[in-house]
Amino acid sequence: SIPGNALLSGKDTDGDGITDQKELDVYSTDPRKKDFDGDGMNDGAELDVGRDPTGEGYIQASITIEKIGITAPIVWGQKADEESMQEYLRQGVVHYPGTAAPGRTASVDGYVTGHSSYYKWDPGQYKYIFKDLYKLEVGDTFYFDYLLKNGRSVRFTYRTVERDIVTPDDPKLFQASNQPIMTLVSCHPPGTSWKRVMYRSELQE
Fold first, then answer.
1. Which of these, 105, 110, 77, lies nearest to 92 by C-alpha position?
2. Whole-angstrom Cα distance, residue 137 to residue 121?
3. Angle at the Cα of 4 from the Cα atoms of 152 and 40, rounded to 5 degrees
4. How far apart are CA 37 and CA 158, in angstroms?
5. Which residues have C-beta within 8 Å of that of residue 110, sequence separation ≥ 6?
6. What is the pLDDT of residue 123?
7. What is the mean pLDDT of the chain?
8. Residue 8's pLDDT band (cuts 50, 70, 90)
9. Rg, Å, the chain Cα set
10. Residue 50 in contact with residue 95, Cβ under 8 Å?
11. How confident is the model at residue 84 (pLDDT cuts 50, 70, 90)?
């Protein structure tokens, strides 16, 4: 058994980058097993790239923003080139590769992007998914939901703390805070690709 003081101290018994308490209470993994599903990758490393620590493949994930009435699947981007990103955006809202996953911290804060508009003839189902993103205000909340292979449902709640309009190459889009920050991004104004509307958001424990 896991001693109670380990849970209180935030101890990581197996050294996989997830505290014992989160393994038990959030993901339903074993805090004594570094690689819960035995696939050769430790549990924390899997979560960092969107892989499911409880079974094969990537996490089935979605984003819900109640204020603008959307729920959409999260696509775990593997490549950042333009062609790959456009293909991902046809399938949902994209978690940008190399940035923090929901509920996690990384060397670059989390970054999730979706189309506010795109070519009418494009076959993608999500080309307008973030058309109303600009309507969010500081203090609004949104959610990431996971359905893990072990049947566990996990929800991460984020609250927006900063809104800005920036150019596509503005360094503010990719920051390193060492905090569980997620940035929502889309082209702005809708119908153009001139600028980006961005919302930096904090994880709510």
1. 77
2. 32
3. 45
4. 28
5. 95, 99, 100, 101, 102, 104, 180, 181, 182, 183
6. 84
7. 94
8. very low
9. 18
10. yes
11. very high
